[in-house]
From TrEMBL, chain A:
Cofactor(s) listed in the protein's UniProt record: FMN
Organism of derivation: Mariniphaga anaerophila
One of the protein's GO biological processes: respiratory electron transport chain
Family the UniProt entry places it in: Belongs to the NqrB/RnfD family.
Protein name, UniProt field: Na(+)-translocating NADH-quinone reductase subunit B
Automatic annotation (TrEMBL), chain B:
One MF annotation (Gene Ontology) recorded for this entry: oxidoreductase activity, acting on NAD(P)H, quinone or similar compound as acceptor
HAMAP family (alphabetical): NqrA
Gene: nqrA
UniProt keyword Transport present: yes
Family listed: Belongs to the NqrA family.
Domain (NqrA N-terminal barrel-sandwich hybrid): residue spans on this chain: 5-98
EC number(s) per entry: 7.2.1.1
InterPro entries cross-referenced by the UniProt entry: NqrA, NQRA_2nd, NqrA_C_domain, NQRA_N
Protein name, per record: Na(+)-translocating NADH-quinone reductase subunit A
Biological process (GO), any one: sodium ion transport
Lineage: Bacteria, Pseudomonadati, Bacteroidota, Bacteroidia, Marinilabiliales
Domain NqrA second alpha/beta: from-to ranges: 114-256
NCBIfam families noted in UniProt: nqrA, PRK05352.1-4
Catalytic activity of the protein: a ubiquinone + n Na(+)(in) + NADH + H(+) = a ubiquinol + n Na(+)(out) + NAD(+)
Length: 385, 448
């Protein structure tokens, strides 16, 4: 390890401004700080600093995503073999392997494209490389249907990183969650390829699906008026859907990691679920069709609700930043997600749009919370004066 | 005793090397110094030149804009040098001490028998006025303004902070005299912030307010905000407990007596304890021969690890500081440091295994533990600020120098020490104290 440190220390002068390889500075710095926490000590202000940094924070979120990723791989295989009617012939590992080979390229494309752009921007701006994309790069594959072409993943990732993040100034400055922006970009730019029933289940060229196979997600079915899934399947995740979103159980494991470490915000998670439940109950009460009659708690297992609640709504940059604001922000996401999902015929899933919409309104919510705070402080001044 | 004000927000950082309650009296240091840089916003004018003989209590320099505010020699002797920095800014006025130099004479009287103006004049002439600091902004009190109250916090919750219950042993009489003098200076009350077990609860002529909770419960700014928050146009003065003693002794003896007990603490100190010397003593007079021999660099801090100033041993201890902390510098690379499980790594977050051992004491160094980033995580600062303040929004107002917003969000109530914990816990390593001071400087410049 001494060798590595010496290597990086010796090459440091070569990548400084004006030196021969100056265009590699961000890359050098990125890898060096990834391997070694820098020796830099505090110059002003507090002399001691908390051991936590953005690398650790982000890697914990990535860790929390791993259960969803692994289950997603398995489920891709499961849905594939179910579709071609060969369930009896293959075991767990065959399914997992099939899924791994399908999903891994998506993950790689997302990271390579996204990190490439991040490095380039860091170099252009003379910044250190920001760790934000470590999470976004994992979120993007997990919210994609498995049959999304790789070039579309690349385009969407590039769009999300450049127009979702870098134009605002990079990590910490963005208004919308970059991963959701990537998903929304595909949804609206390539509606023919990205919706309908053909993208959710992986089918090879020569594969012939069994009779009665539609490839539709339970939500698409439900929107059409047929409830075709069991609540248990939806909870454990044995249903078609985006790669990482199907298993509520795997997502809950991630949620536990985020909550125990305090990285994910419990207020947002709780209020989002509360909003979903309230809207679900309201729909139950005023139900006029089969979908509206769907028991409210089953909505929590369906589609992207759980995934969005745990990993997307809680993105600290695009969420509301005041403590009161977080309650409002989460609750409205829950309400809107279920409302769009059930009532709007054009969009079978509402979570993505609900979160993006509330991302947009988060600064407004914060503004009013801060104004309320200021008003209360002013009142105090009058009382004592 | 009235009710206890319980604070829930905050953070106690448990460091190794807390001082034992043992007092050692040190010989008179051969040189002492007063540093104009210890007083934010001061423009000093010299009253002496190198070679002048001074008595203890003779003026060394004064405030250009308030000439009645003078800064006096803590001990008599000869002015050895005036050290200047960039653009001839005065950094230090150094005195070679001489124990036979004598004392300047002041009035010896019970403060209760004097008028407010007489008390004020005595404090100004003797150089004790600068121990009065004002809020907003934490600058020197102005003799012209009328404070609505005076606050003294008699306990310190910062890491490794001195225990004033121990320091005050045998000195409570002088403390009472000091409080009597302070009571003359305000039409409002003198408030004493005390902790649970406190020797100060019987002090008269002041209203006692008991606080409990983690750091920064002992910060005077936090106490003010819970007892009598500062609104626009109001002024509150604050004094440190040991500085109240100086005031008390002045009225009791008619002489200045700047004998002061310093705490030497930190994981790099051989035997952390209390040391009695004098205001303005060199750092080396306290640290020499008392630090652990180490093959790594050490950082000596005048003050505590959150708000103190890094000092060379050749320098002099800060005017308001009662603590010298020594910790490892930590200027070393750490392989995959950000990924380690972290049993030895104290953190306010719950991402390190150290969270499982809440009682453990830690050896923390001055490493940044990561690079500076844009602000990402929300909700961190709020957990360590037990005041009616939205720290992030206040800091943003400071960053854009928006005077209206700073005022509305409470710039009058905080100085650096009150938000220092934010800087400690910040994942993005944002320089909170620098940002706040820049905002305060803007306020002073624009509104005076």
């Amino acid at each position: 390890m001494k060798f590595l440190k010496n290597f990086f220390e010796r090459t440091e002068p070569l990548v400084q401004k004006g030196a021969k390889y100056h265009w590699l500075q961000s890359v050098h710095d990125g890898f060096f700080t990834f391997l070694f926490v820098p020796k830099q000590t505090s110059k002003t202000g507090t002399h001691i600093h908390d051991y936590i940094d953005l690398k650790r924070t982000m890697s914990i979120v990535v860790m929390a995503l791993i259960p969803s990723l692994l289950f997603g791989m398995y489920n891709v295989g499961l849905q594939h073999y179910k579709a071609i009617g060969e369930m009896a012939a293959v075991g767990f590992f065959d399914m997992f392997l099939y899924g791994l080979l399908k999903v891994l390229p998506i993950v790689i494309v997302s990271y390579v494209v996204g990190l490439g752009i991040e490095f380039a921007f860091a170099q252009m701006r003379g910044h250190e490389i920001n760790e934000g994309f470590l999470v976004s790069g994992m979120l993007i594959p997990l919210v994609m249907p498995v049959e999304t072409p790789l070039w579309m993943i690349a385009v969407a990732t590039a769009f999300a990183v450049i127009f979702g993040k870098e134009v605002f100034g990079g990590t910490g400055m963005n208004i919308w969650n970059p991963a959701l922006l990537a998903r929304a970009f595909l949804f609206f730019a390539y509606p023919a390829q990205m919706s309908g029933n053909a993208v959710w289940v992986a089918l090879g060229k020569g594969d012939v699906p069994i009779d009665g196979f539609t490839g539709a997600t339970p939500m698409a079915d439900a929107a059409a008026g047929n409830i075709t899934f069991s609540a248990a399947d939806a909870f454990f995740g044995f249903i078609p859907g985006s790669i990482g979103e199907t298993s509520t159980l795997a997502i809950l494991i991630g949620a536990v990691i985020l909550l125990v470490t305090g990285i994910g915000n419990w207020k947002i998670m709780l209020s989002t679920v509360a909003g979903g439940v309230v809207m679900g109950i309201l729909l139950n009460i005023f139900a006029v069709n089969a979908y509206m009659e769907l028991p409210f708690w089953q909505h929590l297992f369906l589609g992207g609700f759980a995934f969005g609640t745990v990993f997307m709504a809680t993105d600290p940059v695009s969420a509301a930043q005041t403590e009161k604001g977080k309650w409002i922000y989460g609750f409205l996401i829950g309400i809107l997600a279920i409302l769009i999902r059930v009532v709007n015929p054009a969009y079978p899933e509402g979570m993505m749009l609900a979160i993006l919409l509330m991302n947009t309104f988060a600064p407004l919510i914060d503004h009013y919370v801060v104004q309320g705070h200021i008003k209360r402080r002013l009142k105090r001044a009058k009382v004592t004066a | 005793m009235s009710e206890v004000i319980k604070l829930r927000k905050g953070l106690d950082i448990k460091l190794k090397g807390g001082a034992e309650t043992v007092l050692e009296t040190l010989p008179v240091p051969s040189t002492i110094a007063l540093k104009p840089t210890d007083f934010p916003g001061l423009t000093p004018k010299l009253s002496v030149k190198p070679g002048y003989e001074v008595k203890a209590g003779d003026a060394l320099f004064y405030d250009k804009y308030h000439p009645e505010v003078v800064f006096t020699a803590p001990l008599g002797g000869k002015v050895a040098s005036v050290n200047r920095g960039e653009r001839r800014r005065i950094l230090e006025v150094v005195i070679e001490t001489d124990t036979n130099a004598g004392f300047a004479e002041f009035k010896k009287a019970k403060p209760g028998t004097l008028s407010a103006d007489e008390v004020k004049e005595q404090l100004l002439k003797s150089g004790l006025w600068p121990f009065l600091k004002r809020r907003p902004y934490g600058t020197l009190a102005s003799p012209q303004e009328k404070p609505k109250a005076i606050f003294v916090s008699t306990f310190d919750t910062a890491p490794l902070a001195p225990d004033y219950n121990f320091i005050m042993e045998g000195q409570l009489g002088s403390f009472q005299t000091g409080i009597d003098a302070l009571a003359k200076l305000t039409e409002g009350k003198v408030f004493l912030g005390v902790s649970e077990k406190s020797v100060f609860t019987n002090i008269k002529n002041a209203e006692i307010k008991q606080f409990s909770g983690p750091h920064p419960a002992g910060n005077v700014g936090v106490q003010i905000s819970h007892v009598s928050p500062i609104n626009k146009g109001e002024v509150v003065w604050t004094v440190n407990p040991q500085d109240v003693l100086f005031i008390g002794r002045l009225f009791e003896t008619g002489k200045v007596d700047f004998t002061k007990i310093f705490t030497l603490a930190g994981s790099e100190v051989e035997k952390p304890k209390y040391l009695q010397t004098v205001l303005g003593a060199p750092v080396s007079s306290i640290t020499d021969g008392r630090l652990k021999k180490a093959d790594h660099n050490q950082r000596i801090i005048s003050g505590n690890v959150l708000t103190g100033k890094k000092e060379d041993p050749m320098n002099y201890i800060g005017f308001y500081d009662s603590l010298v902390t020594v910790i490892p510098e930590g200027d070393e690379y750490e392989l995959f440091g950000w990924a380690a499980p972290g049993v030895d790594k104290f953190s306010a977050s719950k991402t390190f295994l150290s969270k499982l051992f809440p009682k453990k004491e830690y050896e923390l160094n001055a490493n940044m533990h990561g690079g500076e980033r844009a602000f990402v995580l929300s909700g961190q600062y709020e957990k360590v600020v037990p005041m009616d303040i939205l720290p992030v929004f206040l800091l943003k107002a400071c960053l854009i120098h928006d005077i209206d917003k700073m005022e509305q969000l409470g710039i009058y109530e905080v100085i650096e020490e009150d938000l220092a914990l934010c800087e400690y816990v910040c994942t993005s390593k944002i320089k909170v104290q620098d940002i706040l001071r820049a905002g305060i400087n803007t306020m002073i410049k624009e509104l005076g």
